[in-house]
Amino acid sequence: MMDKIELKVNNNIYQGFESVRVNKSMQSIAHTFYMEIFKGDEVKITNNDLLQILVNDKVFLTGYLDDYEIDISDTKKPLSISGRSKAMDLVDCNIENNKQYKNINIVQIITDLISPFDITVSSSLSLEKI
Predict the structure, then answer these.
(1) Of 62, 64, 78, 123, which sees the most CB atoms within 10 A?
(2) CA 77 to CA 4: how far, in whole Å?
(3) Up-side HSE of residue 69: CA atoms within 13 Å toward CB?
(4) Do 53 and 22 form a contact (C-beta atoms < 8 A)?
(5) Residue 54: burial class (beta carbons within 10 Å; 0-12, 13-18, 19+)
(6) pLDDT tens track for 62-117
(7) What is the pLDDT of residue 4?
(8) Helix (DSSP H) and strand (DSSP E) numbers for the chain
(9) Which pTM does this prediction carry?
(10) Which residue range is the domain that position 55 belongs to?
(11) CATH number for the domain including 9?
């Protein structure tokens, strides 16, 4: 049985893909995606729109559009889109305030640094304070 894949943008759901590729890696904090959509002229999406890729009605990736290209021919109008997961906010940002941390563990430090981005961090390890 094939998985049901959908793209959700601005509360609109799109289906019908020529190809879908999502790269998740432990070596990269932000996951990447690439999709080719059959009826590209029907998709309402712009750069930096927040989107979700759903697999079998469950959120698989939440992220942003980085690039899109529509290829219009006589027979089809496919749209190619690519982007990165919401963690791209961390990759593309600068720390605004210089801080010194003392007597807290690394999870607490990371939690403080990423708090503006509505991303959570957790650890199952027992971590020492630094």
Answers:
(1) 78
(2) 22
(3) 4
(4) yes
(5) middle
(6) 999 999 888 877 777 788 999 999 888 887 877 777 788 889 888 888 888 888 88
(7) 92
(8) 2, 7
(9) 0.75
(10) 5-91
(11) 2.30.300.10
